Amino acid sequence: MSDEEHHFESSDAGASKTYPQQAGNIRKGGHIVIKGRPCKVVEVSTSKTGKHGHAKCHFVAIDIFTAKKLEDIVPSSHNCDVPHVNRIDYQLIDISEDGFVSLLTDSGGTKDDLKLPTDDNLSALMKSGFEEGKDVVVSVMSSMGEEQICAVKEVGGGK
């Protein structure tokens, strides 16, 4: 076989974005992937083993980006995908006319690929703090290739 015959797709199957964990070890407040979405577990109940098989874990979870409620039932001995969830704080530099925000990274560069949050309260807080000249710090949650502003803090007074 020559090198030309090996064509691998470069699309990521999501393997590095999650890690396996036994369903019986996932607790309330933890994270889980349900229907391909990263979720925060809000309720876990475990049924007893039946005549034929495994105890089952019933998960109720909220999508960390869309806030939609999702449910799944998994045998407690099976592995579930758990998403890697990161939270990073950035300082707000600018809000553009089209709703994109410019954020200052730790390395001194800018991050310009995020929009204002869909949550009206967060958006209003960001805009008012920015217009008043306050230092606004936003928390960006990222998981499974998605990013979203999830919290806003005002630091210090106006200019």
Structure description:
The chain has 159 residues and is mostly beta strands. The chain has two domains: 15-83, Roll (SH3 type barrels), CATH 2.30.30.30; 85-155, Beta Barrel (OB fold (Dihydrolipoamide Acetyltransferase, E2P)). It has one helix at residues 120-131; strands at residues 18-22, 31-34, 37-47, 56-63, 69-75, 79-83, 85-95, 100-104, 110-115, 135-143, 146-155. The strands form three sheets. A five-stranded antiparallel beta sheet has the order 9-8-7-10-11, covered by helices on one side. Strands 2-3-4-5 form a four-stranded antiparallel beta sheet, with no helix packed on it. A two-stranded antiparallel ribbon has the order 1-6. Strand 4 and strand 5 (69-75) form a beta hairpin. The longest helix has 12 residues, at 120-131. It is elongated, with a radius of gyration of 21 Å. Mean pLDDT is 86; it is low at 1-15.
In a few lines, what is going on in this structure?
This protein is mainly beta. The protein contains one helix and eleven strands.
The count of strands amounts to 11
Low-confidence stretches: 1-15
Biggest sheet layout: 5 strands, antiparallel
**Helix coverage percent of residues?**
under 10%
**What is the overall silhouette?**
elongated
Rg, nearest Å? 21 Å
- Kindly report the average pLDDT value: 86
Any idea how many domains?
2
N-C termini distance: 67 Å
**In the CATH hierarchy, what is the class of the largest domain?**
Mainly Beta
Q: Which CATH architecture of the largest domain?
A: Beta Barrel
What is the CATH homology-level superfamily of the largest domain? Answer: Nucleic acid-binding proteins
What structural class should be given to the helix and strand makeup? mainly beta
Beta fraction: over 45%
The name of the CATH topology of the largest domain is OB fold (Dihydrolipoamide Acetyltransferase, E2P)
Number of helices: 1
Task: List the strand order in the largest sheet.
Answer: 9-8-7-10-11
Q: Provide the succession of SSEs.
A: EEEEEEEEEHEE
Family: Belongs to the eIF-5A family.
Domain Translation initiation factor 5A C-terminal: 84-153
GO molecular function, one term: RNA binding
Protein name: Eukaryotic translation initiation factor 5A
